[in-house]
Specification:
The structure is a single chain. The protein is an alpha/beta fold. It has one domain. Helices cover about 30% and strands about 30% of the residues. It contains 3 helices and 10 strands; from the N terminus they run αββββββαββββα. A 6-stranded mixed β-sheet has the order 5-9-10-8-6-7, covered by helices on one side. Strands 1-2-3-4 form a 4-stranded antiparallel β-sheet. A hairpin with a 2-residue loop joins strand 1 and strand 2. Helix 2 packs parallel to helix 3. The protein starts with a helix and ends with a helix.
């Protein structure tokens, strides 16, 4: 593979996943009739096309939000620490280019990025956590290398959220467990899970 092939593949997977999300959201109808419903902390979630969908309001605008998991499916994702001054508007979304869970990390990036951009109008830039031939031209960022906000998505045996300090959060899990951590983080940002 050529030098940029790995990054191109990552971007293509993210674009495909983003497109699938968009198509599913646009095809949603108000009838929410079949597979299931869950109410959590005043938010109604409907199971449609293998996604859970809810509505959140921010700045007097209502948004339809698709996620992989309902709140009841992520409440046991552990949270270590607490962020008090995390800036959501911009920063880096970083990954380890040597991580074996590449496709799940790409899905996590897509789901998180779509939500942050759509609801918060945030601007997040991709970053690698280590030097790698496929990361040429992409910033190398860790929690310790910058004072800007950093969200790291990586593999771990346990689904968990770790607040490293006021500008860095790590979302991790094994395969689909990565998406459980991403969804719980989103629910916390939206005030669905406190």
């Amino acid at each position: 593979m050529k030098r940029y092939d790995w990054i191109i593949i990552f971007v293509i997977v993210a674009i495909i996943a983003s497109t699938i999300f968009a198509i599913r959201v646009f095809n949603l109808r108000q009838d929410y009739k079949d597979k299931g419903k869950e109410t959590y902390n005043g938010f109604d979630f409907y199971f449609i096309d293998n996604l859970w969908v809810t509505r959140v309001t921010r700045d007097n605008t209502e948004y339809t939000i698709p996620v992989r998991y309902a709140p009841s499916q992520v409440v046991n994702v552990s949270v270590d620490g607490k962020l008090s001054q995390f800036q959501l508007m911009e920063g880096y979304m970083a990954f380890d280019p040597n991580d074996d869970n590449y496709s799940y990390i790409a899905l996590g990036f897509t789901e998180l990025g779509n939500n942050l951009n759509k609801v918060f109008n945030a601007k997040w830039r991709p970053a690698c956590m280590a030097e790698h031939e496929h990361c040429e031209g992409i910033p190398i960022v860790t929690c310790d290398s910058t004072n800007e906000s950093v969200i790291i998505i990586r593999s771990s045996e346990e689904s968990k959220i770790t607040y490293v300090d006021d500008h860095c959060v790590i979302l991790e899990g094994n395969e689909l467990g990565i998406l459980r951590s991403v969804d719980k983080f989103l629910f916390m940002l939206y005030g669905i899970i406190k």
